[in-house]
Amino acid sequence: MDSLIDLSEYLPRLGQGLVVSLQLTALSVVFGYLIGLVFALGVSSRQPWLKWPALVAVEIGRGIPALVVLYIVYFGLPALGVLFENFWAAVIGLTFTAAAYSSEMIRAGIQSVPAGQREASAALGLSRTTSFVRIVLPQGLRSSIPPLMGLAIMSFQGTSLAYSISVNELMSQAYQVSTITFQYLAVYTITGLIYAAIAVPATWLSVWVEHRMARGAV
Amino acid sequence: MGDALLIVLLGLPMTLLVTVLSFTIGVIGGIPLMLGLRSRTRWVRLTCRFAVDLIRGVPPIVWLFLLYFGVSFGAIRLDSLNAAVWGLGIISSAYLAEIYRGAFATLPSGQAEASAALGLGGTVTLTRILAPQALRTALPSIATYLLSLLKDSSIASTIGVADMVFNATMFARQNPATAGIVPFFIAAAVYLVISIPVAVTARRLDTRLRRTA
C-alpha cells in the first residue's frame, strides 16, 4: 500500500503528459485531415501531374510505420539544416500519417456519393466546380465522418510513439515515473487505463454515430 | 550506404518473425473471443465486448512496456522478443476477433436456418457452413490487418528487439555524421516493398469477392 501512496505523488506528471498527448492529437488531426482532403482531391484528379504525386505520398504514408516516419522527421530534417523541437517533429510526423490515412477515407466518402447527384446539379445548370464544392463534397465528407472519428482515436493512441523521440507526452512521463518508483506494473497499468479511458468511450461514440448515420438520422 | 543497407536488412528476419508469431497468436486467440462476442449469454457477450475494446484502447507501446518491464514470473522476466510477440499477439486477437465477428454478421440468417432445417447441429453449422463463408468475406480485412501488424512490429524496437528499425536507430546513433536519415529510408523502402504487393492482392481479392457476391 505504501508503494501506491508513493505513486500517487507522481500522478500529476501523468496528467501533464496526457495534456501534451491531447495537444499532439488535436494538431495532427486538424492539419492531417486538411492535408488529407488535399491528397484525396489530388488522387481523384484526372490530371496525371496532380494524381500521381498525391497517390505516391498517400501510399508511402500508409505503407511505412508511423514510428519510422517520426524517426525520419526527427533525424532527417536536421540533416537538411531544418531544426525542430521534438514536439513539432512529432506533430509533423503524425500529421503526415494522419493525412495519408484520412485521404483514403475522404476519397471513399466522395466516391460513395451517387452519380445522380452530380447529374442533377448539372441539369440544374450548376457549374462543375459549384456542383462539386456545394453538392458532392458536403455529402462525401458527411459519410466519411465515422471512419475519420475512428482515425482520430488511432491518432490519439499513435501519439504514444512520440515517446521514441523524447516528447514529454503521457508515455514518456510514464517511463520516467516507472524508472523513479520501480513500480513498472502499476505505472504502465495506470497509463494503459488512461489511454483506454479516452479511447474506449470515443470508440463507442463513433459506433453510435455510425449507426445513427446508417439509419439516416443525422 | 552499403553498410546501412546490410545492417537494416539483417533486422528483416526479426521483423518478419515478430509479425508472423504475433499474427499466429492473433489468428488463434481471435476465435474464442469472436465466439464470446457472438454468445447468446448476455454477460459473456458484454465481458468479451469490454475486453476487446479495452485491449484495443491501450496503445501497442504501452502493452509492450507493461509486459516487458511489468510482468515477472518469480524472478523470471519476459525477454524483449517474448514481450513483443505476446503484446502484439494479444492486440491482434482483439482486432481479428472483431474482423471475424463482422464477417459472420454479413452472412444471411437463411444459411443458419437452412442448416438447422437440414438437421445439422450447432457446431457443424458453425464450422462447416458459416465459418468457410465468413472466412472468404474476412480475407481482405485479415490481409489489411496483417499489413498494419507488420508496421506495428516496428514498435518492438522500443523494448530492444533487434528488428529493422532497431538496427536503423543503432546505425544512425553510431554514425551521426554520415548516416543521418539513410538507414530509416532503407527500412521504409523495405516496408513498402513488402506491403505494396500484399495491399494490391488484398484489393484485387476484395473486388473479386464483391463481384461474386
Automatic annotation (TrEMBL), chain A:
Chief site of localization: membrane
Classification via Pfam families: BPD_transp_1
Any one Gene Ontology molecular-function term assigned to this protein's record: transmembrane transporter activity
Membrane topology (UniProt): Multi-pass membrane protein
Keywords: Amino-acid transport, Cell membrane, Membrane, Transmembrane, Transmembrane helix, Transport
Gene Ontology annotations of biological process type: amino acid transport
Compartmental location: Cell membrane
Domain ABC transmembrane type-1: 18-206
InterPro entries: AA_ABC_transptr_permease_3TM, ArtM/GltK/GlnP/TcyL/YhdX-like, MetI-like, MetI-like_sf
Membrane-spanning residues: 20-43, 55-77, 83-101, 185-209
PROSITE patterns to which the protein is assigned, alphabetical: ABC_TM1
Classification via CDD domains: TM_PBP2
Gene Ontology CC terms: ATP-binding cassette (ABC) transporter complex
Family indicated by similarity: Belongs to the binding-protein-dependent transport system permease family.
Matches recorded under PANTHER family: L-CYSTINE TRANSPORT SYSTEM PERMEASE PROTEIN TCYL, MEMBRANE COMPONENT OF AMINO ACID ABC TRANSPORTER
Protein name listed in UniProt: ABC transporter permease subunit
Species whose genome carries this gene: Agromyces bracchium
TrEMBL record, chain B:
GO-annotated molecular function: transmembrane transporter activity
Subcellular location as annotated: Cell membrane
Statement: the UniProt record of this protein carries the keyword Transport: yes
Domain ABC transmembrane type-1: 12-202
InterPro entries in the cross-refs: AA_ABC_transptr_permease_3TM, ArtM/GltK/GlnP/TcyL/YhdX-like, MetI-like, MetI-like_sf
Membrane topology: Multi-pass membrane protein
GO biological process, one term: amino acid transport
Gene Ontology cellular component list: ATP-binding cassette (ABC) transporter complex
Keyword annotations: Amino-acid transport, Cell membrane, Membrane, Transmembrane, Transmembrane helix, Transport
Domain of life: Bacteria
Transmembrane segments: 6-37, 58-77, 180-202
Family as reported in the entry's similarity comment: Belongs to the binding-protein-dependent transport system permease family.
Name this polypeptide is given: ABC transporter permease subunit
